[in-house]
Amino acid sequence: MYNEAEYVRKGESVMTRKKMWYIAGSSLAVVLGIYFIGAIYFIQHFNPGTSFKTHTIEYQTVDKAAQTVGKSWLSEEYYVVEDGKKLATYTAKELGVNIDVNKTLNEMLKRQNAFSWPITLLQGKLISAESLSADELDVNEKQLDEFVNQLNINNSTRHASKDATIKINEEKGLFDVEPEVEGNIVEMDSLKEQIVQRLLDDSRTVNLKDVYEKPKVTVEDKRINDDVKKMNEQLDLKITIEYQNSKVDIPREELAKLLTIDDQLNITVNSEAASAFSSKFSREVGTYFKTREFKSTNRGIINVPPGTYGWSVDVEKLSKDLTDIIKKGKDGTIKAALQGSGITRPDDIGNTYVEVSLADQMLWVYKEGQIALQAPIVSGHPKTPTYPGVWYVWTKQRNAVLKGINGRSGQSYAAPVSYWMPFNWDGYGMHDSPWQPAYGGASYLTAGSNGCVNVEPSTMATLYNLVGVDTPVIIY
């Protein structure tokens, strides 16, 4: 049997539990009610903590949020900077840019989880929503151009970027890639894009360094490094130039000067360098431009300047031959084409020549190293001198009439001579001169010629017969 007091206590306990369950159920119903009411509310309103860029739009409808964003967005300040310095400040309104954010906000609201509003409420921080898309901006291109132009960014103080190039490393004797150089010329279209882009994203700063014109070719480019490899392989070519009885191998460093790359990074031969090399080679091995040491009859070893006598290399042909053989990329020999006089004389002047001493006013004819004729002369007057140099008899003529202008009097003349042997291209030569009263000594000081070498008529006949065409004439 139950005790009555115990029965009462058990009844009270049951009642208490029922009451607690009732309170708990009621509370849960209230919470669920608030939760679902909130969820219904946030179907048309943005969750707590939501922001668009820097604008808080929590608890707002799309229309209200659009007003908030649009009004604030138009007046926000953005900056153009360089090297830490602020160059300009602008707003969307100043650029004439308008915004329509309804589309983006509607998309945001559709993707928003309205049932997650308690979580966003408890986070206690703003949730930054996505940025605008470019098609939501209406850009006034003219106003944008005016803003950019008034910045006067690309002035004379800036320098352009330089592409990586190939150059010869003289220490290594090889080609290397010379690194690119970044300049600070601003790419204006990119600058305008960045100015507008700042209106779309979270950044407020346009850094000019981000829109510098970049080098098109860098040290990392595979093409230019491959070209360096190929060019260095071409430096190993053995190219020999033959002339007369001599051979010369083109040194590696000279070959390097001939190679270059064009704008499309194709290996080619630098035509100007090939021509310069050919000209230099001609001067070095040829005799046309050569100042010669000459063993004179009366005055020992003297230096005689160049004249018309001598040979040179056909520069144009050598340049072309060089270009062709390098392009083939194979070893080869070039037979240099020679032009001029004395080509067949390996010892240059040889031992048959005419020697004229202006100081001695004498002429000697050497045949096979022996004096065959010696005679006094009259050379040019001090005001119309005979030019020193190594010349040669390029033709012979009997009974010629020499015509010209007297350099001293300015009068024209026509002088008939029996023997005419020109030795340069300016009308100077050796000839008989029956009008001369005397030869040798100081006669040239008063009765000197217009530059020719005057010889007694009887001596000139012998000279004419002794000396053939192509004979060197050394005048000093």
Q: Going across the major beta sheet, what is the strand order?
A: 23-28-20-21-22-27-26-25-24
CATH classification, class level of the largest domain: Alpha Beta
Number of domains: 3
* Range of strand content: 25-35%
CATH topology of the largest domain: Ubiquitin-like (UB roll)
Biggest pleated sheet: 9 strands, mixed
Q: How many β-strand runs? A: 28
Shape: rod-shaped
Question: Any idea what the CATH architecture of the largest domain is?
Answer: Roll
The helical percent reads 25-40%
Offer a concise description of the structure.
By secondary structure, this protein is α+β, with helices and mostly antiparallel strands. The chain contains 12 helices and 28 strands.
Description:
This protein is of the alpha+beta class and 476 residues long. It has three domains: 63-111 and 131-218, Roll (Ubiquitin-like (UB roll)), CATH 3.10.20; 235-292 and 300-340, Ubiquitin-like (UB roll), CATH 3.10.20.800; 353-475, L,D-transpeptidase catalytic domain-like, CATH 2.40.440.10. Helix content is 32%, strand content 26%. The chain has twelve helices and 28 strands. The chain has helices at residues 4-41, 62-75, 102-111, 117-123, 141-150, 188-198, 222-234, 252-258, 271-285, 315-328, 444-447, 457-466, and strands spanning 50-52, 55-56, 78-82, 85-90, 98-99, 127-129, 137-138, 165-169, 174-178, 205-207, 239-243, 246-249, 259-261, 267-269, 292-295, 301-304, 311-313, 332-335, 338-340, 353-357, 362-367, 370-378, 389-392, 397-405, 412-422, 429-432, 453-455, 472-475. The strands form nine sheets. The chain has a nine-stranded mixed sheet, with helices on one face. It has a three-stranded mixed sheet with strand order 2-1-6, covered by helices on one side. Helix 2 crosses helix 3 and helix 9 (271-285) crosses helix 10 (315-328). The protein is rod-shaped and about 175 Å long.
